[in-house]
Amino acid sequence: MRKVLSIVCCALLLAAGTAVGQKEPSKVLPTLKITSPDMGANVSGESVKVSWVSSGVKIVAAAAAKAREEGHFHVFVDREDFKPGVEIPRDMEKEGIYHTAANSLELKGLKPGAHKVIVVLSYDNHIPWDPLVTATVTFTVTGTKAPARTGGGGQSSY
Q: Rounded to whole angstroms, how far apart are CA atoms 100 and 74?
């Protein structure tokens, strides 16, 4: 009995020593960064292309996801009513919420003035990543672009 107890104690000490020396594998959080437009930019026209980059996560269309950790993006335009752990509604483009697996989105029909865009990384089930992974940009639309000139070579004909 003493021999068995000694063997068990040695095995437990070896296992404890190995566990103490090993580090828990670290979970690297995904990253997200908006690359254009620049923060605070003045943009002319009614359309703005917002672009971003991400790392540390596989991005796929939500419908094509085969695992919870395959993410996609939600883009909030002039709203920020998302919450951790709460599903982001679908089919809300007219209300300023877009779903995409792309790294950019062309926003059309923006009125002149200040705008805020937040890109939110979400799981396959449309729930924001935990902890939240977001990127924000603000910019000002200054108005419509001037119409292109055609012909005339700068001379007027009266």
A: 6
Q: Which domain holds residue 124?
A: 31-143
**CATH number, residue 131:** 2.60.40.10
CB 77 within 8 A of CB 98: yes
Q: How many CA atoms lie within 13 A of 154 on its CB side?
A: 0
> What residue ranges in the chain does DSSP mark as E strands?
31-36, 41-44, 48-55, 58-59, 70-77, 97-100, 104-107, 113-122, 134-143
Task: List pLDDT tens digits, range 33-91.
Answer: 999 999 999 999 889 999 999 999 999 998 899 988 899 999 999 999 999 999 999 98
